[in-house]
Amino acid sequence: MEKLSPRELILKSLKEKSSMKQDVYSNLVSSFKFLKLNAKQFVTDFKSEIATIDKRIIIEYRENGEFEFELRIAGDLLIFSMHTNIFEFDKSHQIWRNSYLKEDATRSFCGIINIYNFLNDSFAYNRIHDVGYVIGRIFVNKENHYFIEGKRQLGFLYNDFAHAIIDKKAIKAILESTILYCLNFDLYTPPFDAIKEVLVSDMQAASESMKIKTGKRLGFRFQVDSDEIE
After folding, report:
1. Residue 159 domain flag
2. Rounded CA separation 16/18 (Å)
3. Contact indicator for 117, 78 with CB cutoff of 8 Å
4. Is 6 contained in some domain?
5. What range does the domain containing 110 cover?
6. Strands across the sheet containing 76-82
7. Considering the domain boundaries, does residue 88 fall inside one?
8. 190-203 pLDDT, tens per residue?
9. DSSP string of 154-213?
10. I need a surface site. Which of 6, 81, 122, 216 has the fewest CB within 10 A?
11. 229 contacts: CB under 8 Å, gap ≥ 6
């Protein structure tokens, strides 16, 4: 086989890899747009119905630019954030066991949508020391195939990378599963030993930013990166 010159290698890489990444990015942008539309529709559908049940329950949608939006549901805040770069999986990742990737390694290049869960009060009262959690990561590739790394139903319902296509129906299901997980992921009181010592500076600043740290599982083990079901 004839050895390619540096110029030819550059052109080959741009043709094969850079064009492929553009395809992934286009799919990711489309998926994120549909996710936004579904979130808006969810708020529209549920807002009036919830008002008849309890007017104190708030459901809101807010965009923070092109690549991020928030969904407030009662005391919870879901933040959906699209990363603008394309990533490949580390060779140690279990996804490489899938024959779908073994047939074509470029299928491993994905765009990512991160899903975060915070307490709404953390933002409302500027509690900058509060913690949130990444509850799911949506991966989309050049063929519009997708899977999710996540907790509970987010992790085991959406892991058929070889066959699952991210379309309007799939996005609606993902959003509903995310909301259900969020609502069932309750706030636990931290162990007494974790909070028995409080800095004077924290108490002095409490009125303006409430710096005593709060989180749904603060002081408890939360297995963010494992497959173990909590």
Report:
1. yes
2. 6
3. yes
4. no
5. 19-209
6. 59-63, 68-73, 76-82, 111-119, 133-140, 146-150
7. yes
8. 666 765 666 666 66
9. HHHSS--TTT-B--HHHHHHHHHHHHHHHHHSPPPPPPHHHHS---HHHHHHHHHH--S-
10. 6
11. 151, 152
Give domain status of residue 86, yes or no: yes
Amino acid 158 reads Y
Which pLDDT tens digit goes with each residue over 117-156? 999 998 898 888 788 888 899 999 999 999 999 877 777 7
Per the prediction, the chain carries an average pLDDT of: 83
DSSP label at 55?
T
Residue 76 phi, psi (nearest 5): -105, 150
Q: Is the pTM of this model over 0.90?
A: no
- Label residues 57-84 b or e (16+ Cβ within 10 Å = b): eebebeeeeeebbbbbbeebbbbbbbee
Q: CA of 22: how far to CAs of 14, 19, 60, 135, 142, in Å? A: 11, 5, 33, 27, 8
Q: At 56, list the tokens.
A: 């104190």
Place of tokens 């579904």: 38
d(CA 62, CA 135): 19
Distance CA 84, CA 67 (A): 8
Domain total of the chain: 1
Query: What amino acid is encoded at 22 in this protein?
Result: Q
C-alpha–C-alpha distance, residues 17 and 160, integer Å: 24
Q: Which residues contact 170 (CB under 8 A, 6 or more apart)?
A: 146, 158, 164
Helix (H) or strand (E) holding 34: helix 19-53
